[in-house]
Design goal:
Radius of gyration: 15 Å
Mean pLDDT: 96
Shape: elongated
Strand content: under 5%
Number of domains: 1
Helix content: over 70%
Distance between the termini: 10 Å
Low-confidence stretches: none
Number of helices: 5
Structural class: mainly alpha
Length: about 120
């Protein structure tokens, strides 16, 4: 179970690095426009907000990866914190932006949290 939790955490961290790159660097590029289904005008108007959001996703990824390096006595608490932050952000995003955020962001974090809870 511990290996499963670590694999899930790394996958979620990689996913958030991907979100960071999309939001910080590709927001107004053809790929970013396609992924987010927006026009160049929309992207340019929201570019600084997207970059800020991307930075937060990068911090979440860094927090997850950092947590894995901590001593076991504090590792699980740190993982619970960062996974909970991601789950809450995903639920909020699904209510305020796009419903699919619930499945892409919140659900993986909730699955990892459930596995981590079973491990404890």
């Amino acid at each position: 179970m511990e290996l499963l939790v670590k694999v899930l955490v790394v996958l979620i961290a990689v996913e958030h690095v991907y979100f960071m790159v999309l939001e910080m660097f590709l927001w107004d590029k053809p790929y970013g426009l396609k992924v987010f289904g927006q026009t160049m005008e929309q992207a340019q108007a929201s570019k600084s907000l997207a970059a800020n959001q991307g930075l937060y996703n990068g911090f979440l990824a860094a927090g997850l990866l950092w947590s894995l390096t901590l001593p076991v006595e504090v590792r699980d608490t740190a993982l619970q914190f960062f996974l909970t932050c991601i789950a809450v952000a995903g639920v909020f995003g699904s209510m305020t932006a796009v419903r699919s955020i619930l499945y892409v962001q919140a659900l993986p974090a909730l699955i990892a949290l459930a596995c981590l809870t079973l491990l404890l």
